[in-house]
Amino acid sequence: MSAPVAIVEARGVGKVYPMPAGPVEALRDVSLTVAPGEYVAISGPSGCGKSTLLHLLGCVDTPTAGSLLFEGHPVRAMGEEERSRIRLRRIGFVFQRFYLLPMLTAWENVELVQSEAGMPAAERRARTRELLEYVGLGERAGHRPSQLSGGEMQRVAIARALANRPGLLLADEPTGELDDETGEQIGDLFDRVNADGTALVIVTHNPALAARARRRLAMRSGRLAAPSVVAGS
Ligand SMILES: Nc1ncnc2c1ncn2[C@@H]1O[C@H](COP(=O)(O)OP(=O)(O)O)[C@@H](O)[C@H]1O
Ligand SMILES: [Mg+2]
What we know:
The chain is built from 7 helices and 10 strands. The protein is α/β, with parallel strands linked by helices. The protein has a 6-stranded mixed β-sheet with strand order 6-7-8-3-9-10, with helices on both faces. A hairpin with a 2-residue loop joins strand 9 (215-220) and strand 10 (223-224). Bound molecules: adenosine-5'-diphosphate and magnesium ion. The site of adenosine-5'-diphosphate has 12 residues, from strand 2 and helix 1.
């Protein structure tokens, strides 16, 4: 067999947003390869392009320069349908503000993305129970987001992100709304998710969270610092 295919690979990627006041260059010549099961943290000042990079790695958006490969397939060549299939089945997203649906319970928030992926009801029930227990919220299944603490909401969001067994979990400042101790618990959970085989790319200002990653990258003005450039790519 040839070398294992990267989960996602950015090659010389750039992103320019056309704006009325003139183009905004959010990313410039970014190269990054994320192998299956890797744990990467990205830090950098506000506005340096971290969220833009996550959107590209997550097939939410496409680069304006360079190329992006998801599991070996060029994202540029994919239609919107193909990209949305990848987002639903291969990638999990976790955000600073959780983005749970407020009218749905923890259980329903986690189950919804499995329904969207066409998972049969019995399997969905078993998976949802397993996931809520995995994140330590078996007892909170019937709670709506307003009836949960910030840390609990983020656990539900992580359970939802894992629902379809993605190979890659992307998190954008996942502890930004949480106190240090709760942030530590979320960090422990990410460690477990990674130990169970999911690749993680976490954007964070939290040094304790970044320290957990095996690869730490610094970003500045739309560029990744030198160690991100993998030899040969
Ligand atoms: N959708 C967008 N349209 C126009 N400009 C954007 C958009 N998203 C981000 N930007 C700009 O791109 C730059 C990088 O933003 P972002 O990736 O959100 O940085 P970070 O996540 O590091 O704070 C900023 O100058 C921001 O204003
Ligand atoms: Mg951001």
